[in-house]
Design goal:
There is one protein chain. Helices cover 33% and strands 22% of the residues. By secondary structure, it is an alpha/beta fold. 48% of the residues are buried. The two termini are 32 Å apart. The protein is globular and about 65 Å long. Helix 1 runs antiparallel to helix 2 and helix 4 crosses helix 9. It has 2 domains: 259 residues, 3-Layer(aba) Sandwich (UDP-N-acetylmuramoyl-L-alanine:D-glutamate ligase), CATH 3.40.1190; 135 residues, Protein-Tyrosine Phosphatase, Chain A, CATH 3.90.190.20. The longest helix has 20 residues. Strands 2-3-1-4-5-6-9-10-11 form a 9-stranded mixed sheet, sandwiched between helices. Belongs to the MurCDEF family. MurT subfamily. InterPro entries: Lipid_II_synth_MurT, Mur-like_cat_sf, Mur_ligase_cen, MurT_C.
């Protein structure tokens, strides 16, 4: 059966699909450009190519990619026909490219339900909901990120709400430990997830935390516990605003190690082979979306057990016998969680710090001064490799934090970074890198044969 579309849409799809094929074959990516072309030829193309899909949008500052990956794996395990933008192209043209890549002129006789699980940039939600009414919009958290583009966290929230207002029937699945999300004035059905208990948490908020004051009366929050940054069991003893009741909740963190975490969600134990408190949140968000679609715990558990690191998020690569872990870091909250995760391991290690300031990273790199690099002084670090366009800014920051400058190896190129990694004393190497530095380094590893799959 042929899909009925107009001439303008037909021409847009044919042209863009051709460009998409060329991009994949010869340009090692280019997943935004075909969408830009399609939109230029038909600005309403998304409405045409998204028909027949139930849509889930996952947005927020940190955790979008891993949460999306975990959710995709759960839905595939359940038997859904799933499409997703797994290359990380999470802006409007990238979403269009995702649907284009999966669009077929002839409808199949598949009996599987079709679902699109999309990671969406916070400022781009409003472009998607102009044409799609998602079943679910999930918000992971709100941290200061790319200050030159988003400003403070309140502006980021407003950008997301612009998109939500266009889709009032979408169910919102929100992080209830995020104080900015507990008092939204929206008509949408709301469901919350978070921690009911966290025995490893502190009660005193960090000096540089992102949202320390009550959204209702502006008084400082107090906490029964903090998971990290400003997330946790918050309350205002001035006006009474507090964390909402949770539909999906962590009841206990059983283990938290460098190899992964085990935890109890709604009375059922799960394990995720990725470390860090932030990855427990990612698993919990994916669980919450799955339960909205009535997926059984056994399916979720099996899927989480097989969860692989996705595209620079604790991705492990063998480089001449060295275990190299690439960890994307893009703001103080995420960087501090990465450092805390490194602290779970007591083995000797080397660390590469890659800092870029391209548009996708944020031009303003002053945020590195809000990262707790001083915690690294407690770790058995052998070599400190520093690269990226802003390597000198990073070198100064690390020197001020107390790291031994005699161990610094400033690298002028990705090839020099790679050679310094190969020459490390330690067999365990962590690469803490901003987004475009990560993309460039992975492309270099691919060209050298260390990384088989680029996207």
């Amino acid at each position: 059966m042929v899909s009925k579309i107009n001439i303008k849409s037909f021409f847009s799809i044919i042209t863009s699909k051709l460009i998409l094929k060329i991009s994949k074959s010869f340009l090692q990516g280019g997943s935004n450009f075909p969408g830009k072309v399609a939109l230029k030829l038909d600005k309403d193309i998304l409405k045409v190519i998204s028909k027949g899909y139930k849509t889930i949008i996952i947005t927020g500052t940190n955790g979008k990619t891993t949460t999306t990956s975990a959710t995709v794996n759960i839905f595939k395990q359940q038997g859904y026909e799933v499409i997703t933008n797994n290359t990380g192209a999470n802006m409007f043209p990238g979403i269009v490219s995702c649907f284009l890549d999966n669009f077929k002129f002839f409808k199949t006789d598949s009996t599987k339900d079709k679902v699109a699980i999309l990671e969406v940039d916070e400022a781009n939600v409003k472009f998607i909901t102009e044409y799609i009414n998602p079943e679910v919009i999930s918000i992971t958290n709100l941290f200061r990120d790319q200050l030159d583009r988003y400003g403070e966290v309140y502006i980021t929230l407003e950008k997301i709400l612009e998109g939500i207002k266009k889709s009032p029937d979408s169910t919102l699945i929100l992080n209830g430990d995020e104080s900015l999300l507990g008092n939204l004035s929206v008509p949408n059905p709301l469901r919350y997830y978070g921690f009911n208990n966290f025995n490893l948490g502190d009660k005193t908020i960090e000096l540089n935390a992102d949202a320390k004051f009550c959204t209702v009366c502006k008084s400082p929050y107090k906490y029964n516990f903090i998971t990290y940054n400003h997330l946790g069991d918050f309350f205002c003893d001035n006006c009474g605003y507090k964390k909402p009741l949770l539909d999906y909740h962590i009841d206990e963190v059983i283990t938290l190690t460098s190899k992964g975490s085990s935890f109890i969600i709604n009375n059922t134990e799960f394990f995720m082979p990725q470390s860090g408190t932030y990855n427990i949140y990612n698993a919990l968000c994916a669980y919450s979306i799955a339960k909205f679609f009535n997926i059984e715990d056994s399916i979720i558990s099996t899927s989480l057990l097989k969860q692989d690191a996705s595209f620079g998020r604790q991705e492990s690569i063998d480089i001449d016998g060295k275990e190299v872990n690439i960890i994307l870091v893009k703001n103080p909250a995420g960087y501090n969680q990465a450092i805390d995760t490194l602290s779970l391991s007591k083995d000797s290690m080397s660390i590469a710090f890659l800092l870029n300031d391209n548009y996708a990273d944020g031009r303003d790199v002053s945020w590195i001064w809000d990262v707790s690099f001083d915690k690294l002084n407690n770790l058995p670090i052998c070599d400190v490799i520093i690269g990226g366009y802003r390597k000198y800014d990073m070198a100064v920051r690390l020197k001020i934090s107390g790291l031994n400058k005699n161990n610094f190896k400033l690298s002028a190129s990705d090839d020099e970074v790679l050679n310094n990694i190969i020459g490390c004393q330690s067999n365990k190497v962590y690469v803490l890198t901003t987004y475009t530095a990560m993309i460039n380094f992975r492309k270099h590893l691919n060209s050298k044969g260390y990384l088989k799959k680029l996207w």
